[in-house]
């Protein structure tokens, strides 16, 4: 099941059910992140959504020409915000969608607040399909596999070396956004970057590749561009060379924001791998996981634990 596609379909249905006309999307902190993960601003503009607002914003203007699509979590705080909104409506009509089950008492409170009858509908956007958990297909005999993870306790503890996994483990990512503000010498426009397989072809093609292949693929992409400038060609032997190349060519940087982003991300991953001595840590992990002879393992582990470069997280 493609979760991103499923969420995109849900949001698309919310917008389409409101009918034609200019719309505003009212969200909370969490649902804002959900929508931004699956839709770009240009994509959602094509669906006549011209304004994006937070339900907790106190400075919203009255715009009676807009329809309001509210996509919120059914928290007490959000219900209170909606009640305040309905008592003094800023938009012509409201379509309210909650991301989970809302209590009957809250629905009653919303109905009582809607004195001007501006609410068109209230819905819960949740999946209750039994097919997610039950498979009643008779054409294939059912097969149940019961596996004991105790037989393979070490695999989940290994360092990962594919692009997507390294980004998650070393940099952290939330709603497809990576905070790079602490990267030494980072430029202002790269302090936060977006990695989305939906909108980034390079990331979609490389997210499951090994780290060594990522650097090679970025290098090939940049060298293809360099071929257009034969007088200004230079060798790209390292991540530092690539970063210098991007910084020295404003035109290239403008045309290739995706490349700039990935050069920065890969450069930071490379720095962290070196700083935390992860290659040596991973070598010991692989030795423990894949080899039967562990005669030197204890000494190697002790040596790593005494290494100031190895963090407590990596040593655990």
List keywords for this structure.
316 residues; alpha/beta; Rossmann fold; Syntaxin Binding Protein 1, Chain A, domain 2; five-stranded parallel β-sheet; two-stranded antiparallel ribbon; 14 helices; 7 strands; 46% helix
Radius of gyration: 26 Å
CATH superfamily of the largest domain: Sec1/Munc18 (SM) protein, domain 1
Widest sheet: strand ordering: 2-1-3-4-5
In the CATH hierarchy, what is the class of the largest domain? Alpha Beta
CATH architecture of the largest domain: 3-Layer(aba) Sandwich
Q: pLDDT under 50 segments (min length 5)?
A: none
Mean pLDDT, rounded to whole units? Answer: 82
Number of helices: 14
Q: How many structural units, i.e. domains? A: 3
In angstroms, what separates the terminal alpha carbons? 34 Å
CATH topology category name of the largest domain: Rossmann fold
Which geometry do the CA atoms define? globular
Q: State the secondary-structure class.
A: alpha/beta
Strand content: 5-15%
- Write down how many β-strands occur, each being a DSSP E stretch of 2 or more residues: 7
What's the helical proportion of residues?
Answer: 40-55%
Keywords: Membrane, Protein transport, Transport
Membrane topology: Peripheral membrane protein
Family: Belongs to the STXBP/unc-18/SEC1 family.
Pfam families: Sec1 (PF00995)
Could you walk me through the main structural features you see in this protein, from its secondary elements to its overall organization?
It is a single chain. By secondary structure, the chain is α/β, with parallel strands linked by helices. It has 3 domains: 3-124, Rossmann fold (3-Layer(aba) Sandwich), CATH 3.40.50; 155-275, Syntaxin Binding Protein 1, Chain A, domain 2 (Alpha-Beta Complex), CATH 3.90.830.10; 278-315, no CATH class. Helix content is 46%, strand content 11%. It contains 14 helices and 7 strands. It has helices at residues 3-17, 29-38, 41-45, 76-87, 104-113, 163-171, 201-206, 211-226, 239-248, 250-255, 257-275, 278-290, 297-306, 312-315; strands spanning 23-27, 49-54, 67-72, 93-98, 119-124, 177-179, 192-194. The strands form 2 sheets. It has a 5-stranded parallel beta sheet. Strand 3 (67-72), helix 4 (76-87) and strand 4 form a beta-alpha-beta unit. Helix 6 (163-171) packs across helix 11, helix 8 (211-226) runs antiparallel to helix 11 (257-275) and helix 12 (278-290) packs antiparallel against helix 13 (297-306). The radius of gyration is 26 Å and the shape is globular.
């Amino acid at each position: 099941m493609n979760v991103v596609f499923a969420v995109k379909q849900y949001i698309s249905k919310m917008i389409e059910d409101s009918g034609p006309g200019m719309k505003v999307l009212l969200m909370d902190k969490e649902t804002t992140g959900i929508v931004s993960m699956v839709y770009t601003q240009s994509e959602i503009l094509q669906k006549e959504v011209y304004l994006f607002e937070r339900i907790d914003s106190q400075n919203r203007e009255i715009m009676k020409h807009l329809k309001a699509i509210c996509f919120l979590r059914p928290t007490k705080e959000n219900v209170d915000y909606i009640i305040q909104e309905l008592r003094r409506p800023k938009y012509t009509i409201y379509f309210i969608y909650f991301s989970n089950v809302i209590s009957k008492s809250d629905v009653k409170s919303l109905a009582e607040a809607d004195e001007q009858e501006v609410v068109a509908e209230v819905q819960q956007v949740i999946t209750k399909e039994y097919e997610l958990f039950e498979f009643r297909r008779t054409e294939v005999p059912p097969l149940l596999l019961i596996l004991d993870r105790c037989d393979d306790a070490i695999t989940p503890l290994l360092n990962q070396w594919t692009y997507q996994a390294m980004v998650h483990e070393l940099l952290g990512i939330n709603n497809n956004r990576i905070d790079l503000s602490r990267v030494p010498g980072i430029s202002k426009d790269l302090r936060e970057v977006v990695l989305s397989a939906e909108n980034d072809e390079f990331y979609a093609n490389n997210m499951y590749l090994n780290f060594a292949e990522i650097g090679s693929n970025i290098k090939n992409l940049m060298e293809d561009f360099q071929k257009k400038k034969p007088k200004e060609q230079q060798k790209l032997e390292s991540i530092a060379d690539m970063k210098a190349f991007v910084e020295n060519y404003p035109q290239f940087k403008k045309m290739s924001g995706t490349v700039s982003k990935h050069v920065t991300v890969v450069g930071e991953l490379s720095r962290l791998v070196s700083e935390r001595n992860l290659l040596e840590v991973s070598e010991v992990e692989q030795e423990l996981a894949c080899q039967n002879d562990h005669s030197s393992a204890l000494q190697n582990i002790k040596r790593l634990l005494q290494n100031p470069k190895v963090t407590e997280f990596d040593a655990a």
